[in-house]
Each structure stands twice: as C-alpha cells, then as structure tokens.
What does this fold into?
Amino acid sequence: MEVRKLQNYINGEWVDSESNELEEARNPAWDKLLCHVSMSTKTEVDRAVQAAKDAFPEWRDTPPVARSRYLHRLIELMEERFDELSRVQTTEHGKTIDESRGETRRAIEMVEVASGIPSLMQGSNLEDIAIGIDEYAIYQPLGVFCCLTPFNFPFMVPLWFLPFAIACGNTFIVKPSPRTPMSQVELFKLFDEMGLPPGVVNLVNGATDVANYLMEHPDIQGVTFVGSTPVGRIVYRKCGETGKRVIAQCGAKNFIVIMPDADLDNSMASLMSSFFGNTGQRCLSGANALVVGDDVFYKRFVDKFVETAASIRVGDGLDESVQMGPLQNAASKQGVSRVIERGVKEGAKLTLDGRKLNLVGDVPETCFLNPTVFENVTPDMSLAREEIFGPVASILRAKDLDEAIKIIHGNSYGNAGSIFTNSGKWARQFQHDVEVGNVGINIGVVAPMAFFPFSGRKDSFFGVTHGQGRDVIRFFTETKVVIQRWF
Amino acid sequence: MKLRTMAAVMSFVSKIENDSAKFYQNYASKYPEIGETFSSFIKENKRNEKGIKHTYFGVITDTIEACYSFEGLDTDNYEFDIDLAPGPTLADALKMALEMEDKIERFYLKAAELSHSLMADVPRAFKRVGQKREDRKLKLQFLLEKVS
It folds into this structure.
C-alpha cells in the first residue's frame, strides 16, 4: 500500500510539495511508517508568506466579532471530531488516549478563550488629559506571524498561538514538527471546512531549513517557538537580528518539593502524572523530587513512589489499560537510555531500572522504556541538572525548605516548580521565593489554563510576553496611542 | 478486568448503562405494569452516560489529570447478566434488576472514592449517578413488594 505524502496548505488550498526530500513520520508504539513529510522549499515558504501577507489587509478589517465567529465554528468542529483528533495524536506521538483527549480539550480551550477577542483586544482611554483633549490607546494587528512547533504536543501547542493571532487580525503560518505532523493536518482540514478566508492560516511542512527561512523572512512580523533551550536560544538570537517579535518557550528541569507533612496517599496520582505522564516528554514534567524530612519520612515516600511507578502499565496508548506510552522515536529511547547509564556512572542509585522492559501486549521494544527512578542524586549530577525528556525521576534530599529553594535556584532552568505540603506557611514561602514561572501547590503539573499566561523564567523562556492569556494578545498586537482635540 | 485508566472507566460506564438499558428494554414490553418505570430508567441511563462523559471530556486537560491511575477497580465485582432464565416471573425480573442496580451503585460509589484526588467534577458525577441508583433501588423494591 502506498504511504501518503502530506500536503501543505497554502492560500486555502491543499498543495503537493515540489520537494523530493522526505522524512518519515512513524507510529512509535508499533514502529510503523505512517506518512512521508516533505521538506518544503524556499519557494513554497515564500508562497505561504505571500498568501498570508495578501490576506492580512482584508482580515484585519474584518470586525473582531466576525473573526470570533469563525473560532466558534472551529470549536464546534473540534468537539464533533474530539475522539478522532485524539486518536491521531496517540497514533503519531504514542501518548495514551486519555492524554490525547486532555491535549484536545486544552486545545479547544485555547480557541474558546481567543474567541473572546472583542473583549480581550479592547484598549483604554482617558477623557480630558487636558481640557478638551482626550487620549486613548488601541491595539492593532501587525501582519504575518509563524509558529515553530515541537513533537510532544503536536495538536495543542500551535493553538497556544494561532487562534489568538488570527483573532487579533493577524495571519498565520504553522510549521509542524516533522516527527508528528499529522494532527496539524487534521486541524487544517477543519479550517478548510469552516471556510476561513484563503491565506489567513497556512501550513508548511519541513524541518530546520524551513524554520530558518521563516525566521529570516522579511515579511514575518514575529515567531513563536516551543522546544529545547539550545534551539530556543538560536530562535531568540535570529529573531533579534531580523527585528522580529519572539516568544520562545523552552526546556525545563522541574523540581517537586515533598515536605514531611505532605499527604502522600492523595498526592501519588498527581506525582505519577507529573513524572511519567506523556512519557516524561513535556516541559512541565516533574524531573527532580526534592524530599525534605527525616529518614523515616524519606523511606515512606520512596517506597510508595517506587512501588507506584513500577506498577505503571506501559504499552500502546490506544489500549485503554495502558498508563504510559512509548517515547516518540527510537533515538529518544537511546538518548534516555544513555542518560540512565551516565547516572549510574555518576554514582546515583538506580532504584528502578526502566530499561528492564515490562510491556503490555506484543508491541515491539523499539521506542519503549518503563519508568526509571534514581536515588542519592545530588544537585551537581547531570541527572539533576539536564533536561532528560523521558520517564526518569531523580530523588534528591534537602534538610529544610530554605535549602530546597536554594537547590532549585542553582539550576539553570525556571519553568515550573511544585510543593506538596499541608502547611500554608511553607506553601506561601515557596510561592513567594521560588524563581520559576509556574508554581504548583499540591499540583504535579502546573499547566496554566488558556486564560492565564504560560509563564517561564531563566533558560526556560526567551522573550517578553508569554503564550496564552492576555500576554499573547499583547504579543500579537501593537499599541497605538491617539491624542485628539477638536476645534 | 482491572480498570486502571479514566478511558477504561469511561468505556465501562458506557457498558453498564447500555447493558442495563437493554435489560429494561426487554422487560418493559413484556410486563406492561412496570413498563413506564422501566422506560424512565432507560431514559435516565442515557442521561447518566452523557452526563458523566460530558463531565470527563469537559475537565480532562493535557496535564493536570490526563493520566490519572485507578487502583482497586475490577470489573469482575460489577459485571451482571441481563438475560433471565426461561419463563421468568415479574418478581424474578425485579429481583434481578435490584441485584444489577446494587452492583452499578457500588461501582459508581467506588469509582467516586478512588478518584477522590482527581479534579472534583468527575468523582462528584460518579457519586451523583451512584446515589440516583439508590433511589432506583427503592422504586424497584416497592414494585417487588407490590407483586410478591
């Protein structure tokens, strides 16, 4: 059977790429080829940018309430296809069907919030700044924006930006990850069906070359990026050189502080989701469990944590009995396996070795690892410092909360941090002092809702305003101040 | 079969609501004296399934609760037959309905208890449907006493 080659969506049409350079997108659970992805040419990127540029004047003049109605229609279509969209994500990424449904839900939430643009985009005014003179500020769209997206949330992440961008009156280009490009194709089928004017949204498949060309393109006003910190630095620098706005949401090494009064029974499900959800492939994953307390509490926590992690069922995410899917490709598995080897060499204690596979069903081992837990990890070890992007938990200890916060501040990342405690005093201190963008109190994965900004600090974020919420409205608009007097 | 994920629990919710609706469908036509009550149960089953799924699909998010793990929920404890032995009396059907509803009620209440640390919406939906089952049992008991 012929494997399909994904098309680009440019100026309201599905078009074949002229490129003969292809990459494969594979189902990681069964190690099967799903489709070929074209590495689009510069000419094709130019066409997409031109289409978006041409569509901009009419789109920006479309009243916000009318733009919002397109988003309402999109919400309806997404709800109708909810399970179908979720299954595509599991097929191309490997995550469990529950996780994909969660991703779809969050994606819809983004569109719902963006559809409130007639309120969100309102400016401000002050009558009589001097007698007979009024001043007001309005927010205007800028033109063409693009999004460079990661493989780990292939459906949702572009929607952190796209609905807000077009709701503000901009036009948009998505370059999906070549590893997980299919769910964006499904999304663009919905755009096509809902009759969005040609050129308002465009999809160009490709990899680094396409991303570089978009960042260099003079007609692109701004770039949104979600991915690793090393690449995020490049994006930030490149966009700075070409005078573009940029949101670069990057890597992480999130600490979860477990205080001695934590309710371990009620916290364990949240902790498992944090460390092993999405197979550890997300920037909000718990990576380092930082346990405060005496040896008795430490043992109680570790016993429960390891026992629960060991019982996680690993297999094909479409199997409803499975709690954790594969890594997204074989290279990721090899990379995480190397980290585990290095952790052992550095002197950490490998309490649970996920390389010893225990899989549900007869899936091939190619991309799978079971949950891994290290103890005796110290802050200087690479296990504690570097982003792993896999199902590996490192357990560290601190004598008190002050030391725990000091350890967190010694890490270069600042995406998220959580504390599990029943003490309001400790929780308040943590919230106040910790230098991370997103803080959880008895929450394992601190994912801001669509109506709040997705924050981040230090090496986890480059830019000024963040994705989502009012921050992203400011990103996609420019302020214009008007002072008026009538004689 | 152990139910470990919310997806598996949701599939089981569909199964028990549909299976028990089938049971009531079979006997609503056979025994006109309880037809109205059984027909109302069938309608309520549809609402229950829809309501729980609406709650689940409404609050599940990419991160906070997506891979919530259940421990201790086994379908073996809640399976029921919907076929009566040949030649049943109305009292047999009502007794069977009572047993079935008891299992369904226990399932929902256990699911609510085990998902206590999940977002509150879902356990609350389980509990609400479980409690409705208690009302249904009272109605069935009343009918059984009438025909016995």
Remarks:
- The CA atoms of residues 16 and 241 of chain A lie 32 Å apart.
